[in-house]
Each structure stands twice: as C-alpha cells, then as structure tokens.
Amino acid sequence: MLVSDNLSLPDNDIPTIVTVDNEGKDNVLYVNVKAAAGYLSGYADPEFIASLPAFSLPQLKDGTYRMFEVNGHSMYPTYHDKDIVICQFASRSRIKSNQPYVVVTKQDGLLVKRAFNRVKEEGKIFLLSDNQTIKDEYPIIPLDAEDILEMWKVVWSISPQTEARTDIRSTIDEMKAIIARLEEQLKHTDHE
Question: What's the pTM value of the predicted model, to 2 decimals?
Fold first, then answer.
C-alpha cells in the first residue's frame, strides 16, 4: 500500500511517498544502481515507488528507511562499490555533521557522501567523500539547501566484500615495518 502526502521536503520527518505492509508498518524499499537512475524523477511518483522491491526489517524502528546500492569508490574505505547502505529518512533540521548520508539532489541525483550541515550559518550542506587517495578526484560539493530533495542517514551497511578491512593504524604500522626492513637491507648493502 502506498501512502502519499504533498509535504514540502526535506523539512518533514517522512518522504513524500512511503509503502506500508498489511499491518501498516513502513516497508524498507531497495534502490539498486539501475533504479537509482530513475529515482531522481521517480522519488515522488507512486508507480515508481511501488515498483521498488520492498522488505521488512524488524530491527528498524521509529522511522522510514530505504536501502541504496553504493556505486563507485568515492566513499572507500568506509563503503565499497556494490555495498548496500540502509538509511533512515532525515529532515533538514536533523542533519548531523560528519555523518554519512544518501543525498538526493536536483542536479546530481543520488550521492553517498559525508555531510556537514551549515544550513543555519551559510544555507548550505557540504558533501565530502571519504576516499582521499587521489587528491582532488573527489572535490567537496557545496549544496544549497533548496537543491536537496531528500536526505537519508546511513544507519547500517551490508557488504559483499570478503577481505578483511584494515584500519589506518594497522596500515601505518605495516608501512613502518616495511620501511624498517628496507633501512636494514640498505645498511647491509652499504657495508658490502
């Protein structure tokens, strides 16, 4: 069942259209990469929303949720390409800085980014990528608040990645060990 309201977004606590199960509980809609292309024009279209796969996740309470497939590497190492992020709808007044969001924009469609809320001070939300491996590949995106159609705060993620994810500290420790071995090898080479 679809529930629609003509409320001005994203200042409300629910999106324009939600689907509910037979008990009236919100479904969790899944927006994969293919559906993401149509989401910008279909987020307020009852037919489009009804065409999205719907799931019930009993652990999710008090809110409206959607699942989005991550496309690309801009949020690496936090999220990998093809990861699925489970998100709760967020009104503009509840955007918390330095948190990951799926942001639906008028110009760029769906973006998975870390948001910094400067609406009160500058009328903008700044979006940053976690991937900083190549300087300037993923620039900061300043968005006027009125250019944002919806915001979804990431609360969970599902990853098909099987390799162990390392934190920066262990990576630094590994690099230190490699440098120490190279220095030791250089000392032995210099003495020969």
Answer: 0.75
For the record, the structure tokens of 92 come out as 């503009």
Residue 169 belongs to some domain of the structure: no
Residue 79's pLDDT is what?
93
79 lies in which domain range?
A: 2-163
Note whether residue 45 is domain-resident.
Answer: yes
pLDDT digits (tens, 9 = 90+) for 65-108: 999 999 999 999 899 999 999 999 998 778 899 999 999 998 88
CATH code (residue 120): 2.10.109.10
Is 169 in a helix, a strand, or coil?
helix
Residue by residue, DSSP assigns 88-111 as: EE--GGGPPTTEEEEEEETTTEEE
Taking a C-beta distance cutoff of 8 angstroms, is the pair 54, 30 a contact? yes
